[in-house]
Amino acid sequence: MIHIENITKFFGSKKVLDGVNLTINKGETFLIIGRSGAGKTVLLKNIMGLLRPDSGKIFIDGNDLTQMNKKELEKVRLEFGLVFQSAALFDFLTIEENVGFYFYQHTSLKKPEIRKRVKDTLKLVGLEGIEDLYPYQLSGGMKKRVAIARGIIYNPKIIIYDEPTTGIDPIAVDKVVSLIDDLHRRLGITSLVVTHDLEVGLKLADRLAFLLGGRIIFQGDKSTLNTTTDARVIQFIKGSSAGPIKETEV
Ligand SMILES: Nc1ncnc2c1ncn2[C@@H]1O[C@H](COP(=O)(O)OP(=O)(O)O)[C@@H](O)[C@H]1O
Ligand SMILES: [Mg+2]
Q1: What is the pLDDT of residue 73?
Q2: Which of 29, 76, 152, 244 lies deepest, with the highest CB count within 10 Å?
Q3: Cα–Cα–Cα angle for 93, 98, 103, rounded to 5 degrees
Q4: Alpha-carbon gap, residue 96 to 115, rounded angstroms
Q5: Does domain 1-79+190-250 have CATH number 3.30.70.600?
């Protein structure tokens, strides 16, 4: 479904992605793991067409995103549901207006119809009756779930979670992890989870890729992770400061 060939991305003279190759299959949950600053979010933005790589190709369902014009890109972007690192809700809008944002902005659907879809989607993420509240009235974990509702409301083909559990307490983390897992089982959407938290990532993913130094140093089924002999991967799994990965190396 997503096939990435040898992409590089520079910011100034800094090479953030250095020849990344990846294949994500339809219907699976794929994990991209790596240290903070490794370039995970930059990689996501390339996959969604929000950033253009300096070289390489990105195929979504066989079509190369790097060759598309603005209009074609906008269309492809609708196939993605994105759940940002910070829940990124608009503080001055109600939960209904946040979750229904896409419909209010880009369609001619009437308010009662949007309200119904929002209600149904909120139910799907385990939040009922909060349509008229504002984001400041919710806990961090609830905000993440509202962000998930906003990401899935228009039935995307691919859902991308960028650090879905960062910055919330352990009980809320558990709820969000169960929710992502449950949605994947119920909706069967291809899911891409990006996190620095290996424990969370492995609970959700079928396959994974480990990004270090702008390159994928491990890619495969999670069951093969513990048979790897790569000392860098082993160090990351152990969460140890001792090993070949230097403190400053991302
Ligand atoms: N728009 C930008 N301009 C310049 N540098 C950027 C930009 N976006 C990201 N970077 C740099 O790219 C590197 C990777 O960032 P990011 O993808 O956010 O890491 P993470 O793996 O934590 O998501 C960081 O060093 C960051 O400073
Ligand atoms: Mg990030």
Answers
A1: 92
A2: 29
A3: 120
A4: 7
A5: no
- Express each pLDDT in 172-216 by its tens digit: 899 999 999 999 999 899 999 999 999 999 999 989 999 999 999
Locate 60 and state its tokens: 């979504």
Tokens of 187: 């909706």
Residue 200 DSSP symbol: H
Dihedral sign, Cα of residue 80, residue 157, residue 86, residue 20 = negative
Instruction: Please tell me the number of the ligand nearest to residue 35's CA.
Output: 1
Minimal-distance CA residue to ligand 1 atom 16: 39
Our answer on whether the CB atom of 249 is closer than 6 Å to any ligand 1 atom is: no
Q: What is the Cα–Cα distance from 132 to 96, expressed in whole angstroms?
A: 6
Three-state SS at 201: helix
- Return the structure tokens found at 190: 């291809």
Residue count of the chain: 250
Write down the domain spans for the chain: 1-79+190-250
- Percentages helix, strand, coil for the chain (3-state, rounded to 5) are 40, 25, 35
